[in-house]
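Students often ask what a holo structure prediction actually looks like on paper. The answer is less mysterious than it sounds. You provide the chain, you provide the ligand, and the output is a string of discrete structure tokens encoding the 3D arrangement of the protein together with flavin-adenine dinucleotide.
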Amino acid sequence: MLQIDIEACIGCGVCESTCTFGAIKVEGGVAVVGETCTLCGSCVDVCEVGALSIEREEKAIQGNLADWSGVWVYAECRHGRLAPVATELLGAGRKLAEKRGVSLSAVLLGSQIDGMAEELIAYGADKVFVVDDPALASFTDDAYGNALSALAKKHKPEIILAGATAIGRSFIPRVATTLATGLTADCTDLAIRDEDGALLQTRPAFGGNIMATIVCPHTRPQISTVRPLVMKPLIRDAARKGEIIAVNLDPATLKPRIKVLESVVEDLDRVNLSEADIVVAGGRGLENEKGFAMIRELADVLGGAVAASRAAVDSGWIPYPHQVGQTGKTVAPKIYIACGISGAIQHLVGMQSADTIIAINRDADAPIFDVATYGIVGDVFEIVPKLIEKFKERKN
Ligand code: FAD
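The corresponding structure tokens follow.
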């Protein structure tokens, strides 16, 4: 809670004007704190006479923060394969571990996951904790969350990184809550602060208009999720040596309350948007599902995948897994063809690292042209059929 030393307080009012929550008032010459205080600490920072302080209760689970050491990466695997984000996070984790002078570990949860631990070592892990248990054959929030939380309570890593994928976004908040610590979702940059070794977690905020750097100063571990394709994996080194630690967890820990009856791989997963070299994306300019049938034909002839803006997804023309952008997927293909997409910032954050961007839009001032390598000003319904025809001719 916020403590006010009334002997020291001079009633200057600087704290009152600093508090954005209106939680502190000067009454009778001294500061008085109200119920809206969020313990953000901004008043403590500006009080020149040191009259304000925050007393924090240490959560029993945390103990001494210095006891938490090491960088962990949750190594996601799906359909018997390591998710590419696992190796990307090992690349980022390696830098953080070296800066902190600690080891880098990966945590592998699943069933029949032989061979993956060696792969994680080849991509930079010093240690791999493996929980290979039939109870983890299908992903469930509670079994995976309990397993990672139990390992973290025992081994006390200082940092845990996970992919901001459907799986990571689903169970990592549960891990943070169980461990009574903070979580920064969707980070785009991670670094270690020189002064105190804190993890600096940077992510877009306010619709992508500013970048916020977040720290977790009072609890451990510091947990971040990172979007796929943001970090770079290390070059695979099959000669790297590391330690593989097989862990048996108490069956009660792994007992999910959810029973998975069947797992179906959707047809749209056949072409993984995040891994496609060519992506053809459509927006509101396509007008309806028929517009999407047209760009699907273009994607097929190019051997690419189909993506969409949120406007198109919200209109029901294509399902959500195809959405690219801030609240969809991040893609970095060799070629991204944007058809009838205006280029809102929330869309651009998901595709602007494509090598070549080709934009087709009838509005010459559309912001998509600011990031496009090649721009075609015109009607998608005239241009796309011509492209399909030309690419078909070249193929034959
Ligand atoms: P519009 O902005 O309506 O643009 C349509 C474009 O098509 C126009 O430029 C028009 O000139 C062009 N056009 C129309 N007809 C034709 C034609 N016949 N031929 C050629 N061009 C034509 N958006 C995302 O995409 N992904 C996200 O993840 C996402 N997340 C968001 C998160 C938040 C918190 C918020 C607030 C918004 C988010 N958005 C996201 C929405 C985003 O702000 C835009 O509203 C959206 O990207 C617009 O989609 P659009 O470009 O398809 O549609």
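The mean pLDDT is 92.
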